[in-house]
TrEMBL record:
Topology of this chain in the membrane: Multi-pass membrane protein
Cell division listed as a keyword: no
Protein name as catalogued: MFS transporter
Source superkingdom: Bacteria
Protein's cellular compartments: Membrane
Amino acid sequence: MYNKGLYSDWVPKPVQLLLIVLLLAVVMPLGGVYTGNISYLVSGTGAMTEYFMWANYATTIGMGACMPIVLRMKMRFKVRDKMVTLLVLLGLLSYINATTLQPMIFVFSSLLIGFMKMMVTIELFLPLMMMIGNRGMFYGVFYTFVLVMNQVAVYYSAEFALLYNWQQFYILTSVLCFILGLIHWIFMHDKYFALKVPLHYIDWLSIILFISAFMFSAYVYSFGRQQDWLNSKNIISASIAAFVSFALLTIRQLTLKRPYLSFKIFTRNNVLHGLFMLFWLGMFLGTATLQNTFAVGVLGYDLLTNAWLSMLMIPGIIVAGAIAIFWFKKEKPLKMYIFSGFSAMMGYVIIMYFSMVLEFNYDNWYLPMFLKGYGMCSLFISVWFYTLDKLEMNDMLAAIGLVLVWRTFLAVGIFSAIYSWFQYHFQVIAIGDLAVYMDGMTVSPQNVAANMKAIQLNAIIIASKKIFGYIILAGFGVLLYVITHHFGAKRFKYFRFVRVLGGKSVIARRRLRERKKLLEEIKDAAGPAM
């Protein structure tokens, strides 16, 4: 027998919803590392920060690698067996992270956590989608909840590390995974979702090539500045390995009968424009490195205070989600909603540009972080919806891994690496410019040492303001692009005369309504598979 639900029939619907929410709250923020406690990991393990940046990227790569096969894995195993096994394995990986001091273990465990996490979350899409019924509204609810939980996880990982030590948060997540596994062994049904399908059609070599290509790329992004980019043999070798792996992956997909990835959707107009917008979203999200440098390096915030800044984004995230639900319910065009998201990001960047001074007050963070939260959530929802709109389910699943990695890893990683390099470069130039004041007139040789810290801080501010200035200039170009893009609307409309004799206009309108309803049902059915 088959059962498309998650839980046994005797479990009340409110209890089922509560269990789904608990799963989302624990599994979605789960990762090998958390940005809130990376500094504590560095001090506790003695490893370089770059290893944990690499591990952070690995979680996203693991999710992208799993995406093309999640539907086949969903139909191969019984729901209870798969969910309980995955939750136990996630708990074990978190426990391994809590007890190790080797940074490479964090990298590999993060990759596995991302891979397994995607198998768990795909099980939650169908029941949530059935309850909400509209793909756009589903994105509004889902992304709002996930982004809020991610900010909460960032803060509490820092708080646990400060009050106890960095291992305790991993132990907590491990225990929560074990408890959820036990609960779902009791409440879940022991049936298949649909017709059982074999696993031997999965091309595991393609998965290895996919992981290899992007893990080598993540190594380049993480260690590039530390090893001076192309002056390092390791960086050159990793770049070549990433290129060769992706080339072999592409060639293999063109020769397989059942390819792991499909490149057909990248000829679609909305997919190309969506990827373009996701790339510029990465430009705005990459400013997190600049913000952390300013907050910790210049203003002197402790790590817990810096982590609290992520919590200030939650009101903006909630507002963006509420507007998204209203927007999709009324079936309004996406253009102005996407424009509002990029405008909010521009507002955040402009405020940060003018606020970068040594006298910056903590109360001044509320507005820019609200705008950043609104912009991030609204663009995650709207641009993702537009990119995957009107795609066939098979094509969408076969390419969604690449789109996911592009959005969360490649775009953000590229700009983060660029900002890190330019910040160092501009800082050196700024110190050279400030050296004109050390000529014995403005600052005497005896006072140079006393003023060195102020000179260094001002150099950091000058470098950050330069980068924010260039982001503002590029951001105006992005706003111009968004306001002039058609977003699928017809550019030219022709008047048609409808015959009204014999009630044919009524029949025509009825057919249009039925066709629209059918298309919506097909579109909604594709959403959960994503």
